[in-house]
Protein 1
Amino acid sequence: GAGRARGVLSRAMATLCAYRCIECNEEAVELYRDYQRGVLRISICKSCQKPVDKYIEYDPVIILINAVLCKAQAYRHILFNTKINIHGKLCIFCLLCEAYIRWLQLQDSSQNTDPDDLIRYAKEWDFYRMFGIASLEQTSFFIGIFITLWWMTPEMLKRKSDFILLLKALLLSTYGKLLLIPAVIWEHDYTPLCLAFIKVFVLISNSQAIRVTLNLNRILPCFAIFFGLILENGVVCLFQKIGWDV
């Protein structure tokens, strides 16, 4: 009786504290109070005495700029205080962008311009193959991150919801891959350098997403990213041994 009542109460409190303060990461019951007639009062965090989420008054463009600058407050606003449900679609689109870039580079390296149907079919198959390889590399990268974090801080990922939240954060933080398309459209002599900068930006975004989601210092997310890259490069080496162009 008493134990069940405490369980129900704790679940109710968890539901109520669905938001986070973007400054100190403490849980919050509400972001603002609506006094109607267009009067809103932003809630103040009981822990740090600052507004729980100042971004609810900001224009989405400003929020996006702050996210591009990898500000922790902007990441907390997006991950905890908004109901964004584009994780899967964004991941697929980013993988399509990466597959297209690799497919384009593969076509550039091939001098065969024969318009034969068989050649066109082979080129189409190459695109699907690049999409599959990019997906496997992304998966191995994430697995490396999860293994490292679970090994270093097992108390942080005890619940299924913790894994799901971190996965969503990682998927959202790969948005930088969308820059791959304009990097190729505006092709010039520095395209490889641009692609390298995009890769670094995505890794920094991934690290910030881990840090914000699990409330960690900067060192452990960087270590997790490093181990994820090792696993990803291991998959690349495996494909190269098979004889596939990646």
Protein 2
Amino acid sequence: MASRGGPRAAGTDGSDFQHRERVASHYQMSVALKSEIKKLIYAHVGIWLLLLAQMCVGHLKLLPHDQVAMPYQWEYPYLLSILPSLLGLLSFPRNNISYLVLSMISTGLFSVAPLIYGAMEMFPMAQQLYRHGKAYRFIFGFSAVSVMYLVVVVAAQVHGWQLYYSKKLLDSWFTSTQEKKKK
């Protein structure tokens, strides 16, 4: 093409190399999806730490039970939901498909399933609160069932988006794997 300070090749302005410097779309998508999943994992860790704090305060009796209620049964298996997030993070550096698949499966088992069970477990208490206005468990003056339903809704959205982006990331990795095999 052209030397550093010397003449350029005839018929070019030196910008015809830019098409070769584009990053393939599946690599761009992989980077973007990894970033989104990391944000969701950080949100999940925040939710997880709040539930862990509530459980510790409830069991260690650091505050009276009228301020922080004892945890519901679904919160105990939900504590295992940190494992899928760690597997997801471990899959990122080398695009490890098997870790990402394990992360997706265990997200359903350890994250989504306890949330569904929690929604069903708390439904009679929510119904009683709605119909009669009576709550028996509180978290800092708020009805515990209302606070925990809010946690369930936010956590379900976080895990739903995490699964969606993980599936798209998996598809992106399969695309790059298939292109490598064709070469």
Protein 3
Amino acid sequence: CCRENILKTAKALVEDTKLLVSGAASSQDKLAQAAQSSANTITQLAEVVKLGAASLGSDDPETQVVLINAIKDVAKALSDLIGATKGAASKPADDPSMYQLKGAAKVMVTNVTSLLKTVKAVEDEATRGTRALEATIEYIKQELTVFQSNEVPEKTSSPEESIRMTKGITMATAKAVAAGNSCRQEDVIATANLSRKAVADMLTACKQASYHQEVSEEVRERALRFGTECTLGYLELLEHVLLV
């Protein structure tokens, strides 16, 4: 029953997404209605996904984390979409904000699709690990896009913090290699969950450190380049584990 409810609510959220995009070109009232509707739907979706995660039982916490991460991705994408809709409201069709809106809508639909694939895979133990890894790869790609954007981070951190965060990548790499060797579903799921956090933390710390007041333009560019290269290298590793 959880799966049917998730499917039904996710479909409603896709409809809300369409209304949000079309709402940018219509009245403020319609836009407000679409935003309110999507907020209600995401709350419902989060509840049914949490029920689904609970129904797995506490002996499989890693798979529960995979499900919770999937709904978190959808919620974050919706928040970004609402922000993009606000920015594009009443703007002409060729305005850059309209392209941002279309990009945000695409990410939103991608994440809803990813959630549904994850829910389906959870029912089949043989594909759980593969699906978790695919979802993590997609998530890391999205995080890398945000990292590479010109958006300046809200706060900065020290270079030491950035160095500290690279330790998580080292641990996750060892775990990924072990999972590739064992090919056990639970090892692959644990790798997917750990990788997701390690790379996201590293990217955040790297960008915050690169904008520290004592950092020169040249050093910033190098730091951002190495952050990208590290992520691309890690994605390649995960792709190999997926192939294995």
Protein 4
Amino acid sequence: GEALEVNREVNCVTDFIHGCEDQLQKLKKQKEKGLLYGIPISIKDHINCKGHISSGGMVKFLGQVKEEDSVIVQVLKHQGGIPFVKTNIPQTMINYDCSNPIFGQTLNPLNPQKSPGGSSGGEGALIAGGGSILGIGSDVAGSIRLPSSFCGLCGLKPTGNRISPPGCSDSPFVLAVTGVLGPMARDVDSLALCMKALLCQEMFQLDPTVPPIPFDEQVRLRGTPMSPPAQQQR
């Protein structure tokens, strides 16, 4: 309901993922509760979802319904997460705004006169508007970091090849910098929880090219500013 409301105001959702209610009922019957149990998760348009298109904002991909979930979607579901919407992107995604000829312009919910940033602009707008609490964007040259900044959110661009790629084919570009999927949310704790959930045995088995290194929660703690006495002892 919240996502629909936000979408009416800022045009950030491209598709609702059918079957998410059935998935929730299935999860309730499982004994093992994943780290993301019951959390609705929004995902960027180009991440493959069974029965849905990954348009990249390009008309040529509109007829190509994907036959299977990408690894990240499988892992999110394995951890109890519920992918429920796909979100808008700029055409071809190599852009700092968020507009394409199919779904139109996404606005910034903090100020509709402004852009939400790109290319994960639909994610930024939906989360900032209160329509999602956790989203998956992607970043080559700022596509998670820019919308997070423009929309007042937290976002993480993980190291290249840390998370299995989105699964979309026919990318129009060969990039020198590795594009990588990563979480967007309103606080750092949510990003850490998502990374911990994604970097699990399920992902390492589904995609053997991903190095099987779990998330190190101590990395966050090392970023805490030191008190003056500790600085003096260095």
